[in-house]
Design goal:
With 298 residues, the protein is an alpha+beta fold. Helix content is 26%, strand content 21%. Strand 4 and strand 5 form a beta hairpin. Helix 1 crosses helix 2. The chain is globular and about 55 Å long.
């Protein structure tokens, strides 16, 4: 059996106890006056703690509000998380406090949490949690995760991504308008290669652009192609693009053309937007119209 190394990571998908409801609820309502609460989904119990803690003190937004938001958008979010290892970025004291990354699923944990066990070159095996349903989503958010960081590949082959992506972040002195201009330049380049692409704001200062691809090339090959595109773009736009590498919300290219703003997307209005537009990133998880990268491999 081939040992793990930098470009190869054997993975084992370990399903938790199969006690999920056949028809899981699409959302749940969390009482505003509760600080600690236990929710039941059939045989799955989720303990929610410190719900009154202010995660955004200046806006009076609590941990309960954050968890409620994720519960409300779970129907469009979960398909993008399914079967993918999750890196947890935990903010124990809210958005303005210190955060830390955590890969290993904490123990003890609910027996029904699925695990993607990935071996690394050191021989160490990391048991990443996998968000498969509403209870597991609420469990992860309760750990203090404000944003979600799932792998670009599914657990059955963690070295072969389903999409390539570009992170567009402003350098010091650049504006968000510069980021939007860069995004349009990236879109033009990708469309010239017949690559379908989709954008989202990062919830901070940037824009991410994703291209759904037919799974096959390795992570290293996908990164190499993305880097080559980025270098060409930087050489063609020296006054605009110095480096393509370096609440998130999907947006349409029309919105980017008109000049969308980061502050347009907040906890209090994204749910209404989803009802109006649905899942703008649904094509990313569809098996149709995925791009073949093989012709570009060297």
């Amino acid at each position: 059996m081939t040992k793990a190394h930098r470009d190869y990571h054997p993975a084992d998908f370990r399903r938790g106890e199969q006690r999920r409801l056949k028809s899981a609820p699409k959302t749940v309502k969390i009482p505003r006056n509760a600080d600690h609460l236990e929710l039941e989904f059939g045989h799955q119990q989720v303990k929610l703690t410190n719900l009154k803690k202010l995660f955004w003190p200046e806006l009076r937004i609590t941990k309960r509000d954050l968890i409620q938001y994720y519960a409300d958008v779970s129907s469009v979010l979960l398909p993008h998380l399914k079967d993918r290892a999750m890196v947890m970025k935990r903010y124990p004291n809210g958005a303005a406090g210190d955060f830390f990354f955590m890969k290993q699923a904490p123990s003890p944990r609910p027996s029904w949490i699925d695990i993607c066990a990935i071996e690394h070159g050191s021989g160490n095996i990391v048991n990443f949690p996998v968000i498969q349903d509403l209870p597991s989503l609420l469990w992860v958010i309760n750990l203090g995760c404000i944003d979600l960081n799932q792998w670009y590949a599914r657990c059955d082959d963690v070295d072969r991504p389903d999409y390539l992506h570009f992170d567009l972040d402003p350098v010091p002195g650049a504006t968000f308008e510069n980021v939007l201009e860069t995004a349009l330049a990236v879109r033009a380049a990708l469309e010239s290669l017949k690559m379908p692409c989709y954008a989202k704001t990062t919830g901070s200062k940037g824009v991410h652009i994703y291209v759904p691809i037919v799974r096959g090339p390795t992570q290293k090959q996908v990164w190499t192609i993305a880097k080559e595109i980025a270098l060409v773009l930087a050489s063609e736009n020296p006054g605009l693009i110095t480096a393509v590498y370096k609440v998130a919300n999907p947006v349409t290219w029309e919105e980017i053309e008109k000049g969308v703003k980061i502050e347009d997307f907040r906890l209090d209005n994204v749910r209404k937007r989803i009802k109006e537009f649905g899942d703008l990133w649904k094509p990313l998880i569809s098996e149709r119209k995925r791009f073949q990268l093989e012709p570009y491999l060297k």
